[in-house]
Amino acid sequence: WAKTQNREATWCHLKILRAEEEIQRLNVEVRCLATWIEDEIKVFSVTLDQLEHTDFPLFGAVKEHAF
After folding, report:
1. CA–CA separation, 61 and 47 (whole Å)
2. Distance of CA 8 to the CA centre of its chain
3. Tens digits of per-residue pLDDT, 22-64?
4. Is the pTM higher than 0.85?
């Protein structure tokens, strides 16, 4: 720690390690988010299909906001 170069090199190394951990965590989060989006699209599609056959005015309003 006495030498500035050693201290800075250590800080850079620790930052890189932390960044790698963050990348791994974000990769998991991205997969979770992608799955959630796919599931929401499926639920939304099923809901639109149900509304189309049961409540046409509501179907039109909801479909305006679809995808």
Report:
1. 13
2. 34
3. 999 999 999 999 999 999 999 888 988 888 888 778 888 888 8
4. no
Q: Which two tokens stand for residue 9?
A: 């090199």
Under 8 Å between Cβ of 59 and 51: yes
Q: How many degrees, rounded to 5, is the angle at CA 62 between CA 61 and CA 63?
A: 95
DSSP 3-59: SHHHHHHHHHHHHHHHHHHHHHHHHHHHHHHHHHHHHHHHHHHHHHHHHHHH-HHHH
Integer Cα distance of 36 and 49 in angstroms = 20
Integer Cα distance of 43 and 50 in angstroms? 11
